[in-house]
């Protein structure tokens, strides 16, 4: 029985707890959060015996094998580094760290310690995203000619909407590019098997002054009339990125959190020499397949007709679509299989994946500041 510690019980912590409750051979021993009430509530909801406010008690606990780091960005590096140095396996939320240098250090420590690492790029674990990736790998799409996509939300559309992600001290040098952008670029590289070679980025702060509540606000929480103060927004809620892949193919990506009516609208379109694919998070059980000289197709999530390597992620019969929590569950199943010494056949996201995403983010930020194309890794 593997024993797990959860650090962070805000929005994403309970998502982790829900997935872990559905995996055999795992017991969550402790949940901690700086807000003790959140930790107590999460522990009660998921029948976890222990809860508290000190993350070091979890890291120092010799019975705990795996740490889930579900904290805000500014705590990713410090907590993860301590956990690795205590000999724990670690699954972290993204981005991996606040800076590229920090991310590189975490990769190095994990390798030295022999830790099994994971990062929650869960969108790649929708069954039809996996199917798209395996078809591209098998050559069904031909050579990749172009990729484009968007990720739109509206939860920061009002001046009274607030999140810690808008503060440089909490989030790092980026809000939405680090948050939603990292998810999308992980989809891009996972599906195509290619790497982003160079980028040209444009960022914008749409609402320059916001009303910051004088109490803690959780992600996506509806905030009514509360005592607030005016705060100058330091980071972007909009980003547009042009890029080139390492096979020379061009692409584009746009994201924003101020798009009224768009709740979590993630789309990626991959155009190949033989056919094209398009997938949207809104209708995650559908994969559009486009052709030049014959009718287009819609593939519905279906374990009986998907590739054998991707069918295992479609755990319900056709017509019963899986959702976001199931994508997280699929990722966690692969991660814990690796912890037990059985790496899955399909490549899963590790700290190295998170480091590669930080390279892309770093290049986008440099491009925005210099108004030039920047090669990833420079």
- β-strand percent reads 15-25%
Number of strands: 17
Structural class: alpha/beta
* Helix content range: 25-40%
Report the principal-axis shape: globular
Structural summary, described in words:
This protein is 32% helix and 25% strand. By secondary structure, it is of the alpha/beta class. It folds into two domains: 2-115, NAD(P)-binding Rossmann-like Domain (Rossmann fold), CATH 3.40.50.720; 123-370, 2-Layer Sandwich (Dihydrodipicolinate Reductase, domain 2). A nine-stranded mixed beta sheet has the order 16-15-14-13-7-12-11-8-17. Strand 11 and strand 12 form a beta hairpin. It is globular. The termini are far apart. The model has no long low-confidence stretch (mean pLDDT 96).
